[in-house]
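Why does this matter for the project? Reviewers at the last site visit asked to see concrete outputs rather than summary tables. In response, this paragraph embeds two records directly. Each consists of the residue sequence and, immediately after it, the corresponding structure tokens. Nothing has been edited or filtered.
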Amino acid sequence: MSHTAEDIVNWGTFAGTRTVLGEAFVRVLGYFREDGIKSVAAIEQAMRERDSAKLVLPSHTLKGESWQFGAERLAALAEEIEVAARHYVEIRQGPEELVEKVVQLRPLFEATLTALEAEASPLVERRAQFGARTFGQSQFGRL
């Protein structure tokens, strides 16, 4: 299933987060990337181990961070996995019924990350590299 940026990200939420975080936005988006990669891998590993309890924390983490950036489809899928995994822990059942949802997680995460980073790329490009000369910006009277 292919996803478009418009159907996986709430751009209003994304813009609000970018405004609130200001200059820290790109750094925090990088943390989302790192944490998301770890969370998705942990969810997949827990699924291979058929361990409902090990699904809970990485799903919860992915859900919360996804909501922050407006990644609503990813957050909703992570929440479905988390809620079901908590239920399975309570009734002492394996997470086999979640296989289909877990299989959907990585491609959705990757598509979401691609969309978020593409939208954030103008911020990344504007960041001056140490020692690099910037053009079109004030040089405080220097040429």
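We now turn to the second protein, recorded in exactly the same manner.
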Amino acid sequence: MNRLNSQYHRPALLLFLVIVVAHWAEHLVQAFQIWGLGWTPAESRGVLGMPFPWLVTEEWMHYAYALIMLAGFIALRPGFTGTAKTWWTVALGIQVWHHFEHLLLLIQVQSGTTFFGQAGPVSIAQLIVPRVELHLFYNGIVFLPMVVAMFLHRRPGPDEADEMNCTCAPRELTGAGVS
């Protein structure tokens, strides 16, 4: 974990960002398929869901992604300092709730029992907001503080730069290598 949050922090953050952006893009494509092309939600499976429909229909896949996101936020958090760490923690907190919602869905699918008197599996927020719109919202409100955290992490203030153990910020900002 020490190396992940020091010498490997930057590549790990970039990999995490690629995973998050790819997932976010899937939701945006799905939204375009529904509202731009007029497809039904069942027909709108994003990019990967078109050739591999099981990626969209299997709840364990959605849960696995939520778990990977949660693990990434937890594992990469020690590498952050100051205000960037605060923003990263906000994203982590939102992802904890998003993960919980997916856990509720997975439990319902795996047990064959639905909650809240609904005909099919449903999360708490889905009682108010339809699933497609809800997941666009969740991905957006997790992504925004995550990007703010990454931006601030690359441009730390002097005190924050002194606390950093990674090479994420340009050397001229951290003072590393300066005599």
